[in-house]
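Progress against Task 2.4 (sequence-to-structure conversion) is shown through the following example record, which the project officer requested during the mid-term review.
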Amino acid sequence: MGCGRTRPQSELVRFAAEAGVLVASRTAPGRGAWTCRDAACFRRAVSRRAFPRALRQDVRIEPTLYTEEPHGQ
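Structure tokens generated for the chain above:
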């Protein structure tokens, strides 16, 4: 999911579902979905419904979730 190129994990952000809500967290339990830190990459994943597919569940994505440095790193 993401930029179309392989990046080191240190350059990626992990997202997971907590109670049906998408959160940025490297430690949240369960399946995770990774994107690069680029905001355009995150928006592209949202528009392509990549998070629900990767997490295998519907998730609510809060409009304030993503910034260039998401919390939970």
